[in-house]
Predict the 3D structure of the following.
Amino acid sequence: MSTTYTQSIDLSQLDFDPDKLRDKYRHERDKRIRKEGLDQYQTPTGDFTGYVDDPYVEPGFTRAALTDEVEVAIVGGGFGGLLTGARLREAGVRDMRIIDKAGDFGGTWYWNRYPGAQCDVESYIYFPLLEELNYIPSKKYSFAPEILAHAKAIAKKYQLYDNACLRTEVTEIRWDESISRWIISTNHGDKIRAHYVAMANGLLSRPKLPGISGIDSFKGHTFHTSRWDYAYTGGSAEGGLDKLKNKRVGIIGTGATAVQCIPHLGATAKELYVFQRTPSSIDIRNNSTTDQDWVKTLKPGWHQQRMDNFNIIATGGQQDEDLVSDGWTDIFRKLQTILSAAGDSADMSPEDQELAMEIADFQKMEGIRARASSIVKDQKTAEKLKPYYRQFCKRPGFHDEYLDTFNRSSVTLVDTLGQGVERVTEKGVVVDGKEYELDCLIFATGFEVGTNYTSQSGYDVIGKDETALSKKWANSLSTFHGMHSHDFPNCYFIGFTQTGYTANVPHTLNEQAKHIAYVIKYGQDHKATTIEASADAEAEWVATINRLAGMGEKFYAECTPGYYNNEGKGNVGNGFLAGQYGGGPVEFFKILDDWRAEGNLAGLDIS
Ligand code: NDP
């Protein structure tokens, strides 16, 4: 073993060679890099436009155009919009309208109803507003229908259905200087005036397709996982896809979505072909129903405390107890063991601290790889299912039936050696010159990410002096605290725009929602016409983001390509993690708390 640096970590006890693993990771990464980067994907157009339609409502909905005015308009009825609505209601704001193109609230959980859909983050921290709704999820990891029901329960509790515009797609938001109001145009011909607008468009919401040659020539049935076609497959979100029992089914993609639906496809399809480019890491799920005795022990404030505990541990911080204690935090427990064995981590060189994290990661991933060998009987297949990259290079998967699905004689793993499927034909899919004939082809190929903000939202925002957000943010984001942007007064961005990223996404959304509600309430109390980020405050925030950006850069640069690292191009421009606050979410939330505690809206100009 020839690891080059370490004064304090004992590498002799390891049962793997870090150098060999490093080489293997590099080799696996290099063979997956594609020069076309994000351009390898296409948006669903032509034959695929139906992929973005709403299959859960009767088509043909019409209504009279609205030309009224609201105090606050929120675009998006997922957790971001719901939390903002809830926090505004708590602040006493009554005149509010949530607009969403879907037929109901729920966002991600409205659209994604594929069999087995489940949240990978613990329900007791993922579900927002649990104490406010006096609700405890039924399982440690809830399935999609329960999460969707909770979203609707939030909307009911905070009267967010009142005045809502569902089945309404925003086409443009434009600032009217003469009345100091935003004008929201929609596909129903609405021209809604709003004093304040908040945009919670969601991440990963527009389905994307691979730009594979011949993709529209396939004569069989196709759909994207985010618009699951139960009329074709039979069954429900719980599985039982009985109409597939005479069908040859193919699925392209093995990301977090595919991992959850493949066990259901494998259980019923006559034949299932899983086309894999990069294997996911599949950790133990170990789900359990909620222990009512534990529920009885919960004291007021437990929810925030548990969210904070997870957030601190999952970003490398120390806590006396790991309350969630699952596959997300396991790597950090491993890290603590290494650090304790090495003595006082405060005395360690930065190189050794980095090495300790890498060793913990190797240990974690060796465990993941050993799990594949122990569950999958055919060792050649098991080998193909082993991920060779660091755990957080891709969204980690957790499942107790996925790997076992490959023990079924009806299921074939078609590994593309990191290259992706070659082409699609009228009859099926070709990999390495071999055609796999199919009746149905399912795309589990994810969502548009890394493109411009306005491309993902589907509409432009035109601010003061005709400043178009599409132009201002064409090359990179520019905000103050991730939520305000100069030339866009009374306008708030909710999501991952120069903010503190955490794996428990609703946690970030909740912090942003509280913050925006505070600013709007302040504006109301002070009879403000406009509140706008000053150019100086924005420049300073962008400089801070850029200064801290290097922190995760090396890590992602060495990762296998995916949407976390802009398909290997690095976190530049509009990449998913580009422009995240490099100091981490714990620090970011504190910055917001401290700023509110100051109470003078520093950095915002008020008129
Ligand atoms: P992903 O983008 O994660 O996965 C897309 C898959 O398609 C990858 O396996 C990718 O391979 C594959 N692919 C793309 N192009 C080709 C090609 N030409 N040939 C073969 N394969 C191809 O999408 P998902 O829908 O799985 O997940 C999206 C995100 O949604 C997750 O990352 C997660 O954030 C979220 N999610 C969260 C869940 C939760 O529990 N909370 C559950 C499900 C999803 P490659 O890896 O090589 O690029």
User: Anything to note?
Assistant: The longest strand covers residues 191-199. The chain has two domains: 1-57+209-286+326-446, 69-206+449-606.
